[in-house]
Fold this protein.
Amino acid sequence: MRANYLFTSESVSEGHPDKVADQISDAIVDLFLSKDPEARIACETLTTTQLVVLAGEIRCKGVYEDGAWAPGAQEEIEAAVRQTVKRIGYEQDGFHWETLRFENNLHGQSAHIAQGVDANGNKDEGAGDQGIMFGFACDETPDLMPATLDYSHKILQRMAADRHSGAAPFLEPDAKSQVTLRFQDGKPAAATAIVVSTQHAPGYDDGDNEAVLKSYVKQVVADVLPAGLLSDETVYHINPTGSFEIGGPDGDAGLTGRKIIVDTYGGAAPHGGGAFSGKDPTKVDRSAAYVARYLAKNVVAAGLATRCTIQLSYAIGVSRPLSLYVDTHGTGTAGDEALEAAIAVVAEEKLGGLTPRGIRLGLGLNRPIYSSTAAYGHFGRKAEGDLFPWEKIDLIDAIKSALSR
């Protein structure tokens, strides 16, 4: 690994058109799981000017069975969509929660997929698809996340909170951030560049109002980044195009699953390519990525490495992973092969294995907990109550014990 370098990550706000799509898709996941914990959902969303379109496959008792919708089900889906857009804050001529057009093109899950996933006789529940999934953790922040991404998320979270509270009434929902840090001896040493582009109220692209907006953004950055990273040499690019009044789905179409690097590790770790939002937890794109983060985070929290990458792989219809790979990037206190063996043991003992069923039951994923994941990253969040169970650090003793056997 290089010791001295520049690295950059970006984030996008809850009002970014792709994130609007992600949040709608996960609102549908939560709606169906609240009706049927064993529901199968693959919901894709398209957003554009005054339009939201749903497409995908579902199976849900009491909602969609035998090729037919239950009475009132489609109205409930539409209400969930409109409520999500309203919560984000879109009441603009080009995208308004109350007046946008809505299309529901969801239909039944393929029987050929279902027969591979469903438990049947002696067959355990299989993975919902083939693929590779990665989990990652590092000690750059208290959240055990890459610093560039962590700070990018937190800048936009703070701005969104101020927009919702009225503390920053000139902000509109759509925004992007980007943080570039200089690393020295592998640790964050200085912020060299900060980029923030935020949709704004009319008139905040010139004169005194523009100065107010830029001063506000710089103060948010100063509040978010640790003291010592910012200096007179930090370069700021705040709304570098000059004006950003037209935003959200009115300014650019949005699709579910287009922000997979924002959702994970900001480019600091590999990505298997599968998106998360809109998928129930039988889809290992989502659940296996969550458990891989859970295991990697506990390795770093245990002091067994300062960086840890874990890869899992699956075949559709097959329950057990095809491979488990651990890489501590030369920072581990135990051999990576020893960690692989220990993690396999801990997964069996604490989760019931790395099968789709083991992951779902071990982490309690068959619940409507996904709307909160769909903006500002699926990882590095506080494990509070039922939310973000894969962020808990409760395997430290178990991993150390397995290593000593």
Remarks:
- The longest helix spans residues 17-35.
- The chain has eleven helices and 15 strands.
